[in-house]
Amino acid sequence: MQQNGKQLGIFLFYFCIVLQVVNAFDELGSSSHFLNLTKRDVVPPTRYFVNCGSITVLDETEIAMIYSDTERTSLKCKRTFQGPDGRALGLTCQNFNLNPRGCKREKMIVKEPGFGKSKFCRSASNIDYISADNNLIINHVRKSLSNKECSGGYFCEVTVL
Predict the structure, then answer these.
(1) Model's pTM, two decimal places?
(2) Could you tell me the residue ranges of all domains in the chain?
């Protein structure tokens, strides 16, 4: 709880600075002409964690964050995302380090209804995936791992593009 309070404090600090800059330009009468921005354009996106089994509807101001545990237990985790009509969704994983034995032990499957699926196994330095439409299903499947095996897990973001 203390961590959440600290993050909220940092967010509010930066949010206030952005509003002060926009208000300063408004006072000069030039923000909408010079920067071509409105106050809504400079509001930082809302970030939140998405749990297994959830169906998440995203808009342009939201970023859904997903992650895995690093335990050795078996796992089947499905997350479904939907964005606005006519918009694609992006999946970005800067930390992706699944079991080194590959897809038979652990994998992430990204499905797009009507467009197919992609598998991601082992580790990757960076995953950038763009959907063909506004729907994305992300499955994380892991078999039970022995004491000599591990999963480094992943941390990813889903955004509206």
Answers:
(1) 0.70
(2) 1-44, 45-160
